[in-house]
Amino acid sequence: MSLPTNPGPAGDIRDKLIIGLDLPSVEEARAVVDRIGEAGTFYKIGYQLAYAGGFAFAQELIGQGKKVFLDLKLHDIGNTVEEGVRSVARLGATFLTVHAYPQTMRAAVVGKAGSSLKILAVTVLTSYDDNDLVEAGYAPVPAADLVARRAGQARDLGIDGIVCAATEAERVRAVVGSDRLIVTPGIRPSGADAGDQKRVVTPAEGIRLGADHLVVARPIVKAADPRAAVEAIVREISGIEA
């Protein structure tokens, strides 16, 4: 089935779906990518795969014309973050995540200078709710309020985009404006298990709420037919974008 590839200025509609390769080995990830074929254009590599040969696999995907999101959530002293980002930029990845702490974000902006790499700041993990923030030592504050505060700091420091739950996308958009990206994990197609995510929405809801890119992992990579799962989500996104 032919999928729409030209929704206008945003480019290929398929790029709005980032497929999370949350798998334990490069062999398994490569098999999923092969099964998805041209239906998928953008892949996320996180800790699990990155530390199992995923950096070389990222270069392999980039060499095939795919886009790669390295979800490493960097957070360390400034110099370490700066040099780490500089190394990632040389790989040719499209996106890299850092935690939305001001010192970390400042260093990341310096490290990516002169490259096409876009830095995404992770505000509050989608597996966290208000009680988790209290348990982590934060004064009682709604997760949405902390997301908005960190989004404002990211905007002021020149970060390219924000990672937040789709349920906070509208508020984040009001903070960062139209020229910053919003990337939303915690996306689950209708009927899919929420798993360990606590703030989830469907693909259609994510786009309606203002997300530029949706990250979907388990509902695709664990599907009996990963390509069909991708195509269904892209069709859903296409209907909202039309």
TrEMBL record:
GO MF annotations in UniProt: orotidine-5'-phosphate decarboxylase activity
The keyword Glycoprotein belongs to this UniProt entry's keyword annotation: no
Entry-linked SMART domains: OMPdecase
Binding of substrate, residues: 22, 44, 71-80, 126, 188, 197, 218
UniProt keyword terms in alphabetical order: Decarboxylase, Lyase, Pyrimidine biosynthesis
List of catalytic residues: 73
Pfam families found in the cross-reference section: OMPdecase (PF00215)
PROSITE patterns associated with the record: OMPDECASE (PS00156)
Family: Belongs to the OMP decarboxylase family. Type 1 subfamily.
Name under which the protein is recorded: Orotidine 5'-phosphate decarboxylase
Source organism per UniProt: Microvirga terrae
